[in-house]
Every structure is written in C-alpha cells, then in structure tokens.
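Q: How would the structure tokens look for this protein?
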Amino acid sequence: MSLVSLLLSAWLGAGALFAAVVAPAAFALLPSRTLAGTLVGRVLPVLFIAGLVIALIGLWLDRPDRGRAPRVRRVALLALAVSCAVAQLVVAPRIARVRGEIGGPIEQLSTDDPRRVAFGRLHAVSVGWLGIAMLAAGVTIVLASLTPRPQRARDPEPITAGVSRRS
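A: Here is the predicted structure in token form.
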C-alpha cells in the first residue's frame, strides 16, 4: 500500500467516524445544539484541510504506472481537493457569517426565518461536499489498490510483401 493510499484510508476513516459517530453524538449528548455545533465547527476545518493536503500530496506523488485507471484516479484526487477546499474556504465562512447575523442559538429562530433557512441550506451543502470528498477518496483508494492491467503485446504483422504463394 502506498503512502497516499494509507493517508487517504486514514482520512476516509476519520471522515466516516466524524459523520457517523462524533457529530450525531455531539448533538445527542451535549446540553445545547449551539455547543454541539461549536464542537463540530472546530473538527470540520481539520478534516477539510487534511483532505485538501492529502489530495494535493496524492496528485503530486501519483504514478500512472501504479493501480488502475490513472486518469480517473487523478480526477478523483482533484475532486477530493476541490470538495474540501470549497467546503472549508467558501461554505464555512458563509456559515460563520450567518451564525454571526443570528447572534444567538439557531434553534430559537422560527423554522421559516430566512437566517435559519440559509443556515440549514449551507449545512446541507457542507455535508454534500464532505460526502463527495469521501466518495472521491474511496474511489482513489480502490483504483490505487488494483493492479494495473498488463499491456497487451501486439501481434506482429505478418510479412507478406514480396513473398509468393505457390499452389
């Protein structure tokens, strides 16, 4: 297993643990959704920045002679990098801006308040980018772990020029 596959596997495991265990547990066990959101908001940047860095390392170290479908693998690494970058550098600041406008607990706003609706939309977008990044990491790991197809040896063309056939 290559270094990049190892890093991607660790990152994918961290992302899965965060999405399936940490975030739901924070919202279920902490005394307020605001506190849970603060915890999640501190973990996500680490996850997104790590994903971006690992994807860039993967693009830099990727060798086309290893694994299957090198172009698809590179596109998946690029998708991982873009997903993490957009989530961290575009969506996260917008979420912070909406939180700042709200100035208090989001759950105290009515469900049709435009700020709460905007926050919900941005949260869904962030989750979507994380999902795309995790899918891209998984695709990259699988493709990198498969052995490359052996190159088919081309059959030499029969030499027929200047050869006569006698019947």
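The helical segments are 3-29, 33-61, 70-102, 114-145.

Residues 3-145 form one domain.

Upvote if useful.
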